[in-house]
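User: Some background: our group keeps a shared notebook of sequences we're curious about, and every so often someone picks one and asks for a predicted structure to add to the entry. Today it's my turn. The entry only has the sequence so far, pasted here. Could you supply the structure so I can complete it?
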Amino acid sequence: MNSTADHFGQLRVASLESRRADDMARLIQRHGGIAHVSPSMREVPIKPNRQAVDFAYRVITGQIGMVIFMTGVGFRFLLSAIQGDVDRQRFLDALSDIPTIVRGPKPAAAMKEVGLTPTYRVAEPNTWRELLQLVDASVPVGNLHIGLQEYGITNASLIAGLEARGATVDT
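Assistant: Of course. Here's the predicted structure to add to the notebook entry:
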């Protein structure tokens, strides 16, 4: 039986990894490869981010009745994007006054970093389907204006599901 340490046989192995680059390099080396790890993308904030600032003001002024955070990176990006334009503590206080849903452990951890606790957490495997199941079981959204923090591709199925339940969704 061959050792797992020689699978790559000293081949150079390229990995496009951003968040866990060190772990990936160690894994490649453990399997006998020479690791070349580069980030596949880089997050670059857009300043000024008018859409993020407007969203924050809608939360502060009570125009948003609930917020759903899909990713921890997106939550942190939102805080960064409004910095200098919106009073951070006022925004966080406004978030603490309304129901919040997090899709998984990463947005929950990001909220915890700033002293917030999500009202609801989506069950594993933390997909939009479980999010809608949570809404059906515990969170009435009819006639509610929901802020949906997305990061990346818009999830049309989630938005349609929330709208079918009577919510207005702001992304």
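Suggested note for the entry: Residues 14 and 67 are 39 Å apart (CA to CA). Strands lie at 12-16, 34-38, 66-69, 100-102, 120-121, 145-149, 168-170.
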